[in-house]
Specification:
8 helices; 22-stranded parallel sheet; 37% strand; 483 residues; Pectate Lyase C-like
Length: 483
């Protein structure tokens, strides 16, 4: 057998590592593993097999090192060697006529390259397609996947795939999922969605008319998500797992299905970790959270987005936060509206989760031109848990109250220090706030000390003695400060 010491010994009776490696490469178990780099289980079995054989030839530590080195090289070389480009062209110029056929033929590391055209399919990207890149040749303008509204099907269903799985450059339309993810559905999947247009899809019962994710890790970047509908998260809905949502255009989506909570017209997140960064979130609608609904997020960051012109039938025209410890900074929240109750810009509610979450924080944001009916508030706070923090923001809303506090269980102070309120007159600032000073039944008071004396916040005051002249408020001034 090839494992005996005398078969791999070098001249002079010394063991030769190179001879061991050369001998083992010919072993059929390794050959089979090398030929199928997606079979991680087979490689693991092979590693144990090699180590067990080596222990009769080498000290244990040396046998382990040789086995690990060999298998690492084999797995790497096999993956690189086997990676292929599979061409799909419905006109007959490729390897396959349909995208699903290309996916079914692909292995880890392969690219399924799709020629321009409209493909009337709904696709399944499952475990056998782990690590596959689904890529269009010419981008979403000319490469369309259309489910044609086939009942209860997502256009693309990703399940049990890993982080090297990627979907890039398609227009996706006509999805009609019974559950979640009308356009793209992710179940226990780790998938990257890049430069796609997802339009006119629906998730009837649950979240994510455009993209719906459950217990997955998704990254959505550079996409246009428009005109989709769902119970929650008309554009994107995330339930469990993690999500990175960056540099997308998310417009004219609706959370309006009778079967859901109707929360998060643009984005709905109820997950362990979410990053929402550098997106345009405009013209979306929901009952709660016209632009964004963050429900119970422990680690949600909302950074440098434009949240503009969204509508909530009840609360939170721009954003609605429920038991959320989100961090929001550098956002422009403008022209949003809440109809029935209030919080044209933001509604913050914390019912006292167990275990208690940290406070939501809003730092260096612009709130401009937001409106509401009902209580006529831009920022609406309903709390029984940790109080939110609003520091160094710009307020210039078209409402009676910039901040309104509703029910509060115990005496506390909410930190609104260091903001610009459109004036440096403390009496005028106080008139923009509804709190314990206006209703004795409210036990929470707004601390607006250290307010800015101009829109750039070059100066701050804590008293009414000789405040400097305030800078004029205008939309041009706001854009120049925060662009």
């Amino acid at each position: 057998m090839i494992y005996r010491r005398d078969r791999v010994a070098a001249r002079g009776g010394k063991q030769d590592d190179h001879a061991v490696v050369l001998a083992l490469i010919a072993h059929p178990v390794l050959e089979r593993s090398c030929g199928n780099p997606t079979s991680r289980g087979r490689l693991l079995v092979t590693a144990l097999h090699v180590k067990r054989r080596f222990r009769f030839m080498y000290p244990p530590h040396r046998a382990s090192a040789l086995a690990l080195l060999l298998l690492t090289l084999l797995a790497t070389d096999a993956t690189l060697a086997s990676a292929a480009t599979i061409h799909v062209d419905q006109a007959g110029g490729g390897d396959y006529l349909t995208i699903q056929e290309g996916i079914d033929a692909a292995a880890y590391g392969d690219t399924v390259l799709v020629a321009p055209g409209t493909y009337y399919e709904h696709l399944y990207v499952g475990p056998t397609a782990d690590g596959v890149t689904l890529l269009s040749e010419a981008g979403p303008e000319s490469t369309i996947i259309d489910n044609e509204g086939a009942s209860y099907y997502s256009v693309i269903h990703c399940e049990n795939v890993g982080p090297d799985t990627r979907i890039e450059g398609f227009a996706i339309t006509g999805g009609d999922s019974y559950e979640w993810g009308g356009g793209i559905r992710a179940d226990d999947a780790d998938v990257r969605i890049v430069s796609c247009t997802i339009i006119g899809c629906r998730a009837l019962w649950m979240e994510g008319g455009g993209i719906g994710s459950t217990d997955s890790s998704i990254e959505v970047s550079g996409c246009r998500i428009e005109g989709n509908r769902a119970g929650d998260g008309g554009g994107i809905g995330v339930w469990g797992g993690e999500a990175i949502i960056k540099e997308n255009t998310i417009i004219s989506n609706a959370a309006d299905s009778f079967a859901g909570n109707q929360s998060g017209g643009g984005i709905y997140v109820y997950c362990n970790h979410a990053e929402i960064t550098d997106n345009l979130i405009e013209g979306n609608s929901a009952l709660d959270g016209g632009g964004i609904q963050d429900w119970g997020g422990d680690e949600t960051s909302i950074i440098s987005n434009r949240i503009i012109g969204n509508y909530a039938g009840s609360i939170g025209g721009g954003m609605a936060l429920y038991n959320s410890a989100c961090f929001a900074s550098g956002n422009t929240v403008a022209g949003n509206h809440a109809n029935q109750f209030g919080g044209g810009a933001v509604d913050v509610r914390n019912t006292g989760s167990s275990p208690p979450r940290a406070s939501a924080q809003f730092i260096n944001n612009v709130f401009f031109g937001n409106t509401s009916d009902g209580d006529e508030s831009a920022i609406r706070i309903r709390q029984s848990g940790p109080t939110p923090i609003f520091n160094h923001n710009f307020f210039a809303d078209d409402t009676t109250y910039e901040v309104l506090v509703t029910s509060t269980p115990s005496a506390d102070t909410i930190d609104f220090t260091g903001n610009w309120w459109g004036t440096d007159d403390p009496d005028e600032i106080a008139a923009k706030i509804y709190d314990c000073n206006d209703d004795p039944g409210l036990l929470w008071c707004i601390d607006f000390s250290d307010w800015c004396t101009d829109a750039s916040c070059d100066g701050q005051v804590t008293s009414v003695e000789d405040p400097p002249e305030a800078a004029p408020v205008s939309w041009g001034r706001i854009k120049s400060l925060y662009r």
